[in-house]
Amino acid sequence: MMIAYLDQQLRLGPGAEADPHPAGGELDPELEAASEDFGGVARALPAVVLRPGSADDVAGAIRLASRSDRLTVAARGNGHSVAGQALAPGGIVLDMRAMARIELVFSDGGQPCADVGAGVLWGELLEWGVREHGMAPRSWTDYLGLTVGGTLSNAGISGQAFRKGPQIANVAELEVVTGEAERVVCSPSHRSDLFFAALGGLGQFGIITRARIPLYPAPRLVRWIRVVYSRIEEYVADAESLVACGEFDYVEGFAFLNRGDDPASGWDSVPIGPGSVFEQDLIPQGSGPLLYCLELALNHELNDDVDKRMEELLRPLKYIKGLEFSLEVSYVEFLSRVNLAESEARANGSWDAPHPWLNILISASNIVDFDHEVLQPMLKDGIGGPMLIYPLLRSRWDPRMSVALPDSEVFYLVALLRFTRPYPVGPPVEDLISQNREILNRCRSNGYDFKLYLPHYKTQPEWAHHFGKNWARFVNLKARFDSRAILAPGQLIFSRAHPPTS
Ligand SMILES: Cc1cc2nc3c(=O)[nH]c(=O)nc-3n(C[C@H](O)[C@H](O)[C@H](O)COP(=O)(O)OP(=O)(O)OC[C@H]3O[C@@H](n4cnc5c(N)ncnc54)[C@H](O)[C@@H]3O)c2cc1C
């Protein structure tokens, strides 16, 4: 019934125009919302937005698209992409938020898992798991207003990933509807080719409709810690020794401005906890324009020896003594820590402004040079938001997954999460985009071993370069699972006019 309506709405045939304001059925009339994303840079109106109730609805939409030689289908999670990745110009957008069921299940071996619709937000999963079952997944993103299907199509990285792997390494089973409209339940042991292709697969091989995510007892409390460094060399040495020893449950960090006039990325962005003050006199004379904050966490239960553990683990670190901050919070509070920043950004208008973000995965062997050659000279005035820099371990990523990584075992996520006011209060977005381009040019000309995270390229040769030696595999998988290039057109990897040829 819904597909018949969709069919009628799209009026397949030469010269047919889709009605941009469909009414009735289960179709979503809000095409406008589906024509943009968090990035606010790309824009494309779809022909129709559908709220699928099941994998069969998803398959029906794909079958319908396959009857034309131009229609595409994009799954839209929560639209938090920054370069139009979830858009479908003139095509069908599937609003995956409609698939938001969560159920507790047990694997054959007795492992509790959350069986979740792909449109569930990680924040919803956290609330459900902890409140109803005292359990939670173990790998997160910093911000939880992202869908399960959306982050599993990329990677899902936060401070737990060095130890537990990214979110894509914490999945027991997927239900995927391929670009051939086939519904497949896959796992590491069954149809593993599609399972690993879909993880980090940028939505290219199928639409994830359901994921099974292992759950573990949720820690009761978290000791949240921040310590400050003036030199990148000491910062990265400590960060890398901590991810190697694996004693902390969470290791992240960020660069911030060595000055007090920017509450979002200056000294004041560092202290945590009521009444804690950043003693700027403690910063060594001659420090550069950027300082570095290592952010750590220890999960623990009531009445255990967390103070002693924290003291022992911090003792060998070379941070500026006196510039350490800590706070005791619940597990849910810790994982929801970005909510406050979101409220502030919504209040000051920077949430709705364009966000030309740049996320780079760069080898540990290049990170100090990157700081000296790129960060310090180019970003000494900040970006109005966080500049995350923290290490990850390649061995926690299964090489069968689609995501492209630098070659070295230790690599850093450098996330330039720009939050500026809309122009003319803030800078023109074109200036920020050209600064991103310049940063990447310097990375290339300096010969760094790096890959973009949440990549966005406009041409196939650029994508081929991005995937490197795995490009041929990527194209072969596309030819098998989405031979007509119907899915995720906004990634600009393949198009209906230029489908994959294996
Ligand atoms: C404020 C903010 C904070 C963030 N923090 C982090 C972070 O800490 N760590 C991190 O790793 N990332 C982070 N991200 C990036 C985030 O992972 C991406 O935006 C990701 O795309 C998820 O967003 P989404 O669920 O809205 O997906 P969308 O942006 O809607 O979709 C992303 C891509 O995946 C495809 N897709 C979506 N759902 C499915 C599905 N079910 N099946 C197949 N393909 C699908 C889309 O077609 C699109 O190509 C953050 C983004 C924002 C805006």
UniProtKB/TrEMBL annotation:
Its EC number is 1.5.99.12. GO terms for molecular function: cytokinin dehydrogenase activity; FAD binding. The keyword Flavoprotein applies. Its cofactor is FAD. Belongs to the oxygen-dependent FAD-linked oxidoreductase family. It is an enzyme of class 1 (oxidoreductase). Residues 42-218 form the FAD-binding PCMH-type domain. GO terms for biological process: cytokinin metabolic process. Keywords: FAD, Flavoprotein, Oxidoreductase. InterPro entries: Cytok_DH_C_sf, Cytokinin_DH_FAD/cytokin-bd, FAD-bd_PCMH, FAD-bd_PCMH-like_sf, FAD-bd_PCMH_sub1, FAD-bd_PCMH_sub2, FAD-linked_Oxase-like_C, FAD-linked_Oxidoreductases_BP. This is cytokinin dehydrogenase. PANTHER family: CYTOKININ DEHYDROGENASE 7, GULONOLACTONE OXIDASE.
